[in-house]
């Protein structure tokens, strides 16, 4: 890329899976993983989950949350193990 923002070649798509740092940053890989983990802890807090459920206003809201929960609980969490 002409901006040279990436740590790895842009063509190396298999590394864009949230397991390694791909953009140049002053943060270390460990700091990035810690920040990402803290975001997931917020998403699994009872307060956040209850607020999301109470904001359901119709069928499509429910479907959206259902699909998001399936993706999060399915494959996506395995990216951090």
Residue stretches low in confidence (pLDDT < 50, at least 5 long) are none
Number of helices: 3
Beta-strand segment tally: 0
Shape: elongated
Counting helices, strands and paired strands, the structural category is mainly alpha
Please compute the radius of gyration using only Cα atoms.
17 Å
Average pLDDT: 84
String of helices and strands: HHH
First-to-last CA distance = 30 Å
Number of domains: 2
Main β-sheet, in a few words? none
Question: Helical content, roughly?
Answer: 40-55%
Strand percentage: under 5%
In short:
The chain has 81 residues and is mainly α.
Structure, explained:
The protein has helices at residues 29-43, 46-54, 59-73. It is an all-alpha fold and 81 residues long.
How would the blueprint of this fold be written?
Blueprint (H helix, E strand, L loop, with lengths): L28 H15 L2 H9 L4 H15 L8
Give short descriptive properties of this protein.
single chain, 81 residues, 3 helices, 2 domains, mainly alpha
